[in-house]
Amino acid sequence: MKLVAFPVRMAAVEPLTAFSRWYLYAIHGYFCEVMFTAAWEFVVNFNWKFPGVTSVWALFIYGTSIFIVEKMYLHLKDRCSIFLRCLIYTTWTYIWEFTTGYILRQFNACPWDYSEFDFNFMGLITLEYALPWFCASFIVEQLVIRNTLRLRYDENAEPGAPTLTMAMANGHVKTE
Length: 176
What we know:
- By secondary structure, the chain is mainly alpha-helical.
- Helices cover 53% and strands 8% of the residues.
- It has a two-stranded antiparallel ribbon with strand order 1-4. The chain has a two-stranded antiparallel ribbon with strand order 2-3. Strands 5-6 form a two-stranded antiparallel sheet.
- A hairpin with a 3-residue loop joins strand 2 and strand 3 (125-126).
- The mean pLDDT is 89.
- InterPro entries: CmpB_TMEM229.
- The chain crosses the membrane at residues 22-40, 52-70, 82-104, 124-145.
């Protein structure tokens, strides 16, 4: 095997900032809200247009909530099972949804109303969403948070410039 010698610039990579992660979480939540409401409209009213709706408040609500779930994940990941963590996240989601809904309602700005649901509380939360919130918390932890925490920022990279990629095998640079 021929060894190839080339200069390797070790990039100064850092984890994403808290604000960058919050932003990604906000966009994720906003998108999921639009997709959920579109799917709901289809299932309930057979509307093939899939009109998904949300409020600009969803950016703050989801970004902050998922950022807090990230902190919970980091604290709980080695202490309890995924099932228990998702129960905790779901409980948090209900607390957060009720709190933000209650505050927004004071300004006539709450974008949701669950009054038509059988198991609602003040129209701000409903138990009918417990399973979807549980499943969403699993997806958020396993896909969104874990992958977002793996992202790195290279402060020396030039926008649009190709990056040097090194194939690694067992911790060694592959030379083929």
